[in-house]
Amino acid sequence: MKGSLTVVGTGIRSVAQTTLESRASMEGADRLLYLVADPVTEAWLRQLNPTHESLADCYREDLKRIDSYHEMVARTLAYVRRGEHVCLAFYGHPGVFVYPSHKAVAEARAEGFDAVMLAGVSAEDCLFADLGIDPADHGCQSFEATDFLMRRRRFDPTSHLILWQIGVVGEIGYRPDQRFHRDGLAVLVEYLLESYPANHQVTVYEAAQYAVCDPIVDVCSLERLLDADVTAISTLYVPPRELGVSDPEMLQRLGLKQHTARRAS
Length: 265
Ligand SMILES: C[S@@+](CC[C@H](N)C(=O)[O-])C[C@H]1O[C@@H](n2cnc3c(N)ncnc32)[C@H](O)[C@@H]1O
Prior knowledge:
alpha/beta; Cobalt-precorrin-4 Transmethylase, domain 1; 5-stranded parallel β-sheet
């Protein structure tokens, strides 16, 4: 028997946001490996497939996050090489800010195994719904917060801006108590203040993990962001500073008039 790998996402809202194809893959796998964020989803996966195995123990205080990820990939590939049809499940979308999922697919394919990733519901998808934002208006840029600072990413402050992992800026390790220092967040605020006024209203967002809960939508001024309750699952939404201006030459080339060009879709 030749092994294979299917990588799936369970969504953000426990159980409710898992697609039908992802559920079928988890149920039918010879081996279900998972890394999820809440106990209800974990309990559900455990009753869905008796071969369940959590990868949470790959996170250890003595390891850098990247080493934990490589351990997850190695454990997954070991089962595929044994000839098993492996399903690897992550919370959210499995391909969004999940290094080991992409790495596992790439390594499995490089070794000649069938490997696919199925799309899931990410925190950003929930954000669009909960905050009522459409990326068609103004465009939307999305960055990992540490990468955003390290590379001084250039961005357009007239577009929507979404910053991931604002609770762990500059952190490369794992802390079981989830008590991360705030120095990195202070650097982020400083960098954003180069492009937005201090009173610019931003949102610290947490999508609800359970259907009975509301999302956390904490609106504050940029200068007060350090006072906000930022956790390891917070995402920052920064609205456009002002409307982008249409370029008259482009409007002419596209045969558009000023008033029709505001929204292209
Ligand atoms: C390792 S990434 C995982 C993202 C996940 N794969 C997804 O599809 O959304 C962790 C980051 O995702 C975002 N995130 C995770 N859960 C979230 C939630 N419930 N609400 C808002 N953002 C969340 C935060 O920015 C967090 O730091």
